[in-house]
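## retry 2 of 3
previous attempt timed out at serialization; input unchanged, resubmitting
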Amino acid sequence: MINTILIFPIIACILMGLIKKKAFDCAMVNVYAVLHFVASCLLACGIGKLGNIPYFTVDNTNIIFLLVLSLVFLMVAFYNSNYIRNLEYEDKKIGHYSFMIMVFVLAMTGTILSSNLGIAWIFVEATTLSSAYLIYFNKTKHSIEAAWKYVFICSIGIALAFVGIIFLNIAQGDINTLDFAQLYKHASAFDPFWLKLAFVFMLFGFGTKMGLAPVHYWLPDAHSEAPSPISALLSATLLNSAFLVIIRVFKVLDIAQCDKWARIMFIIVGFVSLFVTAVFVYHIKNYKRMLAYSSIENMGILAIGTGLGGAALYAVVLHLIGHSLAKASFFLTSGNVLELFETKRIKSINGLMSADNKTAWLWILSFLAICAFPTSILFISEFLIIKTMIMQGHLLLCALFVLLLTIVLWGIAKVVIKMTFGKLSEDKEETVRANKKKFSILMYLPQVIMLLLVFVLGIYIPPFLNSMIILATAGF
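## retry succeeded, writing output
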């Protein structure tokens, strides 16, 4: 199965380059999405693990990340089918777009499945190169600027991560390996000084891709300027991939009993991420940019939960699942809003409920899901993190955590309410009416499925998923 999901996109990209037809390109993306999801489910059931390509493996930790990537990619691919149909570009440009989606998902899959830190580093760099074109796709002034900022900042981040890998190698002495299993086996013999220094560089290096403040500057521009299906992939899957690599390195420090240092770093960058979001969410003029800052906030929550440890690790995995599904839904719904009103400016949009009530309800429900409104699974995860803080005696941090989350919630709520209700302006009525005719069920169904999962999982987590989450936390 691992061979299949890594090799198929390569073959598909070659065929797409030869056939060069819009319909075929779209079909290949959809086939890969279905294949990826089926293969991931089989791997989760323990089927198809034999005969793996060297340097790639499935374990209790990365299978959760792989399943989230597969499910989000499948939903995005369905939405993308209608999105591509409405694009007024020549087949060649659509071909490049579809080609890069395949490469981007392949790079994220490789990052998640890598059993070697060096290979994971290469695939993280590949995600930058492939997604840069997707951010630049619309070729506007702002998208070009966002793509350059993305490449520049993430290249610095990947360079910092490379320096961290060098320091990790120095810490090993004569052992000299980047295989995660070997790193875990020999971690107790590593030099603590170089190990701690390596973690700092890799936290900020890979943290750049994860969107942690203060190395987050590319994220608001890139997520707001990319096409909506790509924004969903960037926020819901790319950030997770980088987080997994950081978790793998953190495990080495945990075994080497240097985890206290790493936990402090996690909590610091986590609260800085929450603070940055709380400050900037009140000055947002672009609703897609608002969603991007929400991603920074949620990556901060993952970092804080990891730093706390204990029951918060279970909450981290829950939060990762919930955020990925809710944020993907939010970004895809923002694509509907953009298609209807032809603007990203918040002040130019009123009366979404009158324009398209299905999109309006998806917009409201996505907001409730991402802001941890019961029964969202994010309510459970944030509750467990708060409970862990109280049990560990971090009362001041707990108060600050709740305060920052409340500020962010209020900032997003103001925008959602303003855009959803009110009277649709007369100058927008004709535009909205014409654009609504382009919509099909595929513009709504993916969000419905993801939101349904988010709210159902907040009430009932199936035993098999609960077991997977518990097993996944052992890798932290």
